[in-house]
Each structure stands twice: as structure tokens, then as C-alpha cells.
Amino acid sequence: MYATKRSGFAMILAIFVVVLIAMGGALLMNSGAQESKKVGDKYLKAQADLLVKSATEYALMRIQDFNTSGGVCLNQLNIAVNDTSGGNMFNIDVSMQYSFRGNSPCGAAGTAGVLAADTGKDTTVLMDVTVTDNNLGTEPIRSHERSWQTF
């Protein structure tokens, strides 16, 4: 009988190919997990951006209904947004500073919340709205908007 000499090259090549395929699969799994986290964070960021708009409108509505007869204006508004189970998801902080057409019902210019009084222009409010999450995603979510609102 003839003894054939077999080299282990085919086995080494097969092991190398299996290792390459395993590394490719691991990279795909890792990439999929990272993309999943990004989608969740983008969803939360979109929620925060919409909450900024809603909080601006809500604060403007509250300002128009606020009783200033005591010489005090609404300068700060804090809102907690909860999920359906009652857990706190987002905190919204709104600060307001006013510029009045006529005399200020909130006190003299330069006092808390009054930028200018008797400007001759429409009464406006400078709103700073900040929405922050309570560790909902993989990254901290924060959305901020500053706007002038006329009423």
C-alpha cells in the first residue's frame, strides 16, 4: 500500500474561513445593537423637541390667565411629564421675562421677570424652555428653545 502524505493546509484554511465568518457575524450583531440604541435615542429626542413646543404654548396660555393684580407675574413654570405607570420621564423648566407695552403690572423694569416697561410695542415675553429626560436612553436627552412670544 501506498501511504499518502496529507498536509493540514485544507484544515487550516477551513478554520481560517470559519473564524472570518464568525468575526463578520459578531460585527453585524454589534452594529445592529448600536443602531437599535440610536433609534431609541432619536425617538426620545423627538419627544423632547415636541414637548418644548407644547410647553411653550402651555406657558403662554398660563401667562394670559395669570392674575397680576398682586404685582406678580408668572416667571417660572416647572412641569413633570409621567408615563402611563406614573414614572417620571421628562422634566420641563420654563423661565419667562417680560417686555410691556405700557406700565408693568409686575413691578419696575429690572425687577424679577421684567426686562422693560412702557416700550410702546406689543407686550412680549422671552421664554426659555428646557426639557431634560430622567435617564431614559443610552445618552442624556436635553432640548432647549428660547423664543419671543407676543400676546
CA-CA gap between termini:
104 Å
Major sheet attributes: 5 strands, mixed
What is the number of helical segments per DSSP (H or I, 4+ residues)?
A: 1
Number of domains: 1
The stretches of 5 or more residues where confidence is low (pLDDT under 50) are: none
Report the average pLDDT across residues: 87
Estimate the global geometry from the Cα principal axes: rod-shaped
Tell me the strand percentage band. Answer: 25-35%
Give a count of the beta strands, DSSP E runs of length 2 or more.
Answer: 5
Q: How are helices and strands ordered from N to C?
A: HEEEEE
Q: Which structural category do the helix and sheet elements fall into?
A: alpha+beta
Oligomer: single chain
Alpha carbon gyration radius? 30 Å
Which percent range fits the helix content?
25-40%
Task: Characterize the structure shown.
With 151 residues, the chain is an alpha+beta fold. The chain has one domain (9-150). The protein is 38% helix and 27% strand. It has one helix at residues 9-65; strands spanning 76-82, 88-99, 114-116, 124-133, 142-150. Strands 1, 2, 3, 4 and 5 form a 5-stranded mixed sheet that branches. The mean pLDDT is 87.
Mind sketching the topology for me?
Blueprint: H1 9-65, E1 76-82, E2 88-99, E3 114-116, E4 124-133, E5 142-150
